[in-house]
Records
---
Amino acid sequence: MKRLPLGYFPFSAIGIVLLWTTVFGCRDIMTTNDPKETFLNTTVTLIVSLSPVNASALMPGQSAIITGTIHDTNHYSGVTVVSSTLTGLNASDFTILGNSIFHLQINAMDSATFQMRFTPLKLGYVSAILTVNADSNNISATDTMQYYVGVGSLSLRDTAINFGFVQTDSSLSKSLVITNTGLSPVRIHNMYYAGSDSGSFGYNVIPQLSCPFTLQPSGKFTFQLQFNPFSQGAHSTSLIIAADSLPAVFMYLTGIGANNGMALQPDPILFAYHDTNTSRTIAYDTLYDFNLDTSYRHVDSIKVQSNQGDSALFTVIGSFPVAIQPPTGPNPANGVMYPVAIIRFNGVPAVAPHYGYLQVYFREAPGVPVLVPLVGGPF
């Protein structure tokens, strides 16, 4: 009898492999490099965020509603919330309303909300921890709640002040109002600057007060803040207000010591965006030099820097050097605004702003750049 070739027989080893591959695919034989397949094996991440509460306006027994949001950061699968727990010193002060969180469905890359009732049982510091558990590989997320109930609360009209460009031989003042928006008096025991540039900043308190002093409910006082730069370039510091039974209040102050009237505008350059549904947002602004000199001056180059790795998001568009003409006409004392370059922000939507700054090099001040802060939204 004639022997048939091995490949002819339909149930040979090769035939079995080919049949298996055709029917079931190659999942169990070959390793896939599909990025989606790889990502599905990664850990799902949940993020819990809670709405703010003015706990200083509450008294024991009074209630406030807290809205919570749970975010699913996985690109390809959603989750279901199966349980939640409240732990910590004051867990009994918090109640999740109804079934607003139980079996809460959250789609991939989406969020869902729930509500809690906050009813403090005592004055002073209150804390608890919320833990949310999902059905996907025992994934959980936590958020720590900390409030000061029925005590005074210091409110700032501004949380940051930028003095802009100030000549190194002059001073600029700005006011800051602080109000006690709580129900009880606040005893302020210290106010001070912290930072290496603190020597460029000063303040006076109106009315004249010296620590310690007490600020009654609805009471207010005014800081008269001064910026007197001792050198060229950027300066910054933090004004810290320390009060009894309250976390310290911080005010961030910045300014730039100018050289020979060199003042770039706008300062800072702010790029706001609000559409978080697009992958990128591009915005433009024009940088001007405000020339008060009696002769030409020149911008030889502009560099972008960032202390948090955002420099690639900002681009300088222009050719250098740029000659800025002196003011002319009937009112030369008013100076002249001259366009220097276009600044582009090519950012990605995020929950926090992107920061950088320009180093603008003038020929007339070699080696000493003028700094312009850059901030890309959201705001």
---
Amino acid sequence: MILHPYTEIPITSFHKVRDNALWLRDFLSKQKQPEIQIEKGSDLELALSISEKFPNWAEEEKDILEELKTPEILSKAIGLSFLASILSEAARHLSFKNALRLLPDLTKSNPIMHEASESTQPRNAVFELEVASIFIASGLATETFNEPDVRVHVTEEVWDIPCKMIYSKEPATLGDRVEEGINQSLKHKGDFGLVVLGISNRIDHENFMPLFDENEDIRGSFRTPEAAYKLLGEKALMPVIDDLFIQASNPDRFLNGRQSSKFRGILVIVHTVCLIGKAPVTLSRTALIGRRDIFRDSSIYGPEEGLCKRFHETALNIFAK
């Protein structure tokens, strides 16, 4: 594990960024699906090329951090390293074979979840791949389908888990996507349903590396990780949670979820990149909004908190290795 010398939070090294990129390029080249082609000029090829050059850039005499600390470069490099770390760890487990069907989508759109991008079906599928791979890396038997996107087996319990990327800041659109996810989770025969929301497309990533001087390309950094995580909560998680509560205050919203105790809540995931001191780090946070919070239903308490905690800790531990 590599730690920031002052904050003692996990960061990554330039060599680890390169090694993860090389692993991913090699891993994809060995797949038998003919549609897996890393095309020149694609988002994936750009992220791989940037990441593979990091150690050489770092050996130059000039202050490499001043050259590299732009949101575009850091997001692509650290975002790709995060994704490659997850896939590398998941590939150690038998049930990773159930997620291989999603690999071609890595090459068809921007696969980096640490930056905003346009909505495409392949990008949404990459999010499903990320979610499934984290569950797989946590040691849980996991499957992927057209619906539900992910199915997770926890001892004798089965979770049906639709995954929804959110691109709009409109509360009604957010509510529509959650409602769609709830209904998808209830259509299947698992024991529990959980909707996973990815909101990295909904946030302004410039807030986490603000430009103070355009001519000198001077960008802001955080003194402590606590300040960065606090801002991520305030700017990313809380607006989504507030919008969900507003939507749920309408008794006709999420009606099927209200009526079925199978639906257990919403797991919100957000990623971005920032500087803490001069160290580039990945910021990732999750938040579980359980049914007892959404519907003020204190009569039902289940294993969703343990499942989501396992998911969160697995994601952090993978990147810290």
---
Amino acid sequence: MAFNQISSYAIALVAAAMVVGVGALVVNGFSTGLPTQNVDSVAWNVTQYGLGGLQTFVSWFSTIVLIIVGVILLGLVLSAFGSKTGGQ
């Protein structure tokens, strides 16, 4: 892993956060735009499950980002010591 590849990983993380955020806004906008008499409809139930899934993913997003950053830092440290070939 080269040091210049870190910027592409950072851009990918920011893009993932933006996609999740926009997706949550779209699903929330759709669910609030539904008439209140259709609370038991399939569309309302699907949007609520979608929002619940996005909320679960977002609650884990900081942990996922910390793990990815840790892997990148570990890769940088190992490449600095020349262990790219698996210790051979």
---
Amino acid sequence: MPIGNRVRRGQKVIPDAAQENALRDAADEIKRLRGKLTAQNRPDPPLGDSRIRNQTGERLEAGAIVALTGSAFDSTSHEFWRRPLADAEKPTGDTKEVLAICAEMIPAKAGTIGRVWTVGLAPAKIKLNSAEHRFCRAVTDNVTTLETASSGPAALIERQSDGAGLVRLGGGGSGTGAARLGRVTAFSAGEATIQPRKMDGGSLADDTAETTLDALDAFGSGAIVGDTVRYYELGEETVFELVDLEREVKADAAITAGNSGTCSIYESGSDTGDDITVHLKWMDGGVDLASGTEGKARFSIAAGRWELLQAEC
């Protein structure tokens, strides 16, 4: 006998026509509803794909960034194999650390367990360091914000105007973008401000907003302002190469063969006010360069210095 309109295991069931039709109507309705599910009314996915144990000492809000440091269980325990759980600390900023983003608020009490995203799309607050960056990394001891970088453990999908953005965890890497051209508009303390350029109607024109890149101090402050450069990302570094490598110079003091000295940069016969250190690599017969001698200097990328190319007789 059925108990409470349910059938016990092993009992034979012979539905009548009404019961059979009701079952078929229910199946048809389920199929109809499945076809109407959209991004707006589809059930939300579970909050996070993994669990962590909060060891940061702070309350973690939804969207907080943590670094996974190891398993919360020993491999000899039953829980290690049945219920994977990772310890989470504040990030160190290392581009190789494994990051997770909290899917819910996790209290500060040590050992509190909460849900996080460890792979796939996740929302986060993002600090923009360069419009050309395509990856994100954590900031040392900062659980609230990621920052863009040329390499990192998360791929940058989007950053909106309020600083919120979307990243893909597990999609990190390093930038190896194509070379770009730009004009140096400022140079100081090993940093070059560059105005990116592009071809427009057969000539170079300004492209996107200016960007700042690290450059060799050996170039000399102000020595390359106005020059066109070629730059591209290679791993975590930005390779920075001069396209125009020569400058007209005048020796501020005598330079002996095989040594270096200060020279003033000239343009169209006028002193620009900028100085560079020029190495007298060779002269005919090892002749020294007298003070006030005009010549041309070329920057050697291989040697990392300005060298005298030619001088007036």
